[in-house]
Amino acid sequence: MLTNIRARWAQIITDFRDYPLQPGKTWQGRYAVERFLGMGSYGQAYVCHDKVSGKRVLMKCNKPSKGNTGLLLLRREYRIMQAVSHPQIPRALDYSKRGKQEALIMEYIEGYNLEYAIYERNLTFSATNGLQLLKQLIQPLKQLHDAGYVHRDVRIPNVILAGGLPHLIDLGLSCAVGEELPQELRDALGEGSDLAGSAAAIKRRMRHPHPSSDWFGLGHLFLFVMYAGYEAVEGQVERSWEEELALPALVRDFLRKLLNDESAWPSTEACERELDELIATLEREAWA
User: Fold this and answer.
1) Which CATH number applies to 17-107?
2) Which residues contact 59 (CB under 8 A, 6 or more apart)?
3) Angle at the Cα of 207 (from 161 to 197), degrees rounded to 5?
4) pLDDT digits (tens, 9 = 90+) for 120-164
5) Beta-strand runs (E) in the chain
6) Distance separating alpha carbons of residues 237 and 15, to the nearest angstrom
7) Is the pLDDT of residue 9 over 80?
8) Do domains 17-107 and 112-287 have the same CATH topology?
9) Cα–Cα distance, 214 to 265 (Å, whole number)
10) d(CA 113, CA 9)
11) Which CATH topology does 112-287 take?
12) Which is nearest to 103 in space by CA: 174, 159, 20?
């Protein structure tokens, strides 16, 4: 019983330390909290009003209970954002410290994420439209890769639809191409050597510090948007995506390369060229 009491008390202390800022509170006299967006394993996110610029911004803070690890992750994200400049990636605006808590201030993208669009707004895609989405997402990825970094978390929750374009957000898992993270960070990000099972295999593939991990992410994202319009037959045994999705042969071949071939292209730009050719071919066939 004593152990349980200690555990509960420790949790109460942690919850108190990580208690979110409330609407109306101001960070460093400049960023007025409008609403709390959510809390992850190591950080908290808020929509704020910047009293200096008059604009709405996103503020991401470390969780005090996570100590140095939370700070390291936040500082890494800020450094990477400073090195990247693309209209489809939020721009880092400021970095601020207050006691044991620090904050990364970035552009706030007004829109909704692709996950919400699919599951709540019932957005569906044709194969050609799905490929067009990949082409739009390759633009910020090319810039990121050219700057020497990999996103490593290209997923539907991290794509915001705004202004007619998809925006790639959350560089919290990004790293330099070829970088081997310190064991402390690998453990914090769930990338330890004890990973097992099919989900772990996907995580290892997506977290590889090479541009091909983002190609893999694009492939999985494409499958998600294709399945948005898929209707399973009741009682039918689950099959592979190649059997369930009615995709043109050329699209299946391209998707296999995204998902399975780490050396399919010498660069993301080469991947884009093949994607352009594929889209053009599908459009010609549609008009034939």
Assistant:
1) 3.30.200.20
2) 27, 31, 33, 45, 46, 47, 48, 103, 104, 105
3) 110
4) 999 999 999 999 999 999 999 999 999 999 999 999 999 999 999
5) 26-27, 31-39, 43-50, 56-62, 92-98, 101-107, 112-113, 149-150, 159-162, 165-168, 175-176
6) 44
7) no
8) no
9) 12
10) 37
11) Transferase(Phosphotransferase); domain 1 (1.10.510)
12) 20
For the chain, domain boundaries: 17-107, 112-287
Give me the residue label for tokens 């996907």: 202
Backbone phi and psi for residue 73, each to the nearest 5 degrees, phi listed first: -65, -40
Question: CA 267, 118, 80 angle in degrees (round to 5)?
Answer: 40
**Given 18, 153, 170, 187, which residue is catalytic?**
153
Q: Which residues pair with 259 in a beta bridge?
A: none
Residue 153 a catalytic site member: yes
128-149 as b/e: b if 16+ CB within 10 A: bebbebbebbbbbbbbbbeeeb
- Specify the pTM: 0.89
